[in-house]
Design a protein that fits this description.
The protein contains 17 helices and 9 strands. Keywords: 4Fe-4S, Flavoprotein, FMN, Iron, Iron-sulfur, Metal-binding, NAD, Quinone, Translocase.
Amino acid sequence: MERPLTKNIHIDRPPLNLKEYEMTGGYKSVRNALKNMSPEEVRSLIQESNLKGRGGAGFNTGMKWSFVPKGPDAPATKYLIANADEMEPGTFKDRLLLEGNPHQLIEGMIVSSYAIQATTAYIFLRWAYKEAALRIRQAIHEAYEAGYLGKNILGTELNLEMHLHTGAGRYICGEETALLNSLEGKRASPRAKPPFPQVSGLFGKPTIVNNVETLCNIPHIVNHGADWFRSLSYSEDGGTKLYGVSGRVKKPGIWELPMGITMRQLVEEYAGGMQKGYNFRGALPGGASTDFLTEQHLDIKMDFKTVSAAGSRLGTGTMIVLDDHTCPVGFVHNLQHFFAQESCGWCTPCREGLPWVERILLSIEKGEGRLEDLDLLSFHTTYLGPGSTFCALAPGAMEPLQSALKYFREDFERHIHDKKCPYNGNHIH
């Protein structure tokens, strides 16, 4: 089984320095692209590979790049941004790539910048990733010293300046336009779209924002081709995927596996199954802002299309498992508490609705709930759903709630009838 993203990552040793990375074939794709391919050819290759965005949206990466204005009338200044603001609860995949092999990200960003003709690139990093920041800075310095960054890279006309920017720590910065505002020194609130960032992004110039895992795939596609990349997958989505599992499983962790592996394989084979005395009740398949899937879904493929057809989203591919000793109400309340705190406050439904939802869930958890509270919660899942808010934060927050009401309604009703939580405080934290 090929693992292009993680083959050079070893948790028991520091990441490869530039010379070591070059010995494994590092920066070969930069030479291939800059010397043998036009920007249009790189974009077409990535589109043909069916690399879908690994940040959660699952949009074709090459197609996203194609929206950047081109030609003599297009703005000369363009930006590429790596979204490394990994603040989705339950998600820790990009951290492995950032700490384990920072040169892979830098190489992917150089090729991507060439493809869209960007001259400045930023890595927008989560504030808490201190070790990653140190290793990225060192890798950027080495890349400049070797001539992979700066003026006339490898003797070509490509000029690229790369900067590391550490965010202040806001979940909303995972939304690309809020990230752009933060990078400009403004309040991290999402922007109205259109215009989309590909046309008018950072400082009003064409901008591409891609996830770390997405960008790390670029060198391997350039080196090995679109057919090879698609062949790595068990589904129509190309490539491998970093899948994670957390919760009361025997071996929580993260693995690079073919896109389209089943939930059952992830939970039972790679995560070792449930811990002794615990049974599987459900899981959020792609981080905290996805709908629960249950035992009936264990044999579905973990790809964008299949998970969506099952009523959830693949999201980041990092699964949070709910066991039969953990209170679903407490589980969801904890998530809503997080989302309410992280609302940017820009739009009324999100700013006022999320704290309201959080208070209702707290009252139910404390045994003070009423049956009509369940109708109120259902109302909020619609009122805060897609199309009702300025960005996707509140709709994402509603996904675990609406699916919990669907699959675990008896737990909510039991709290209300018994006027207490029956799980003795076994909540997710």
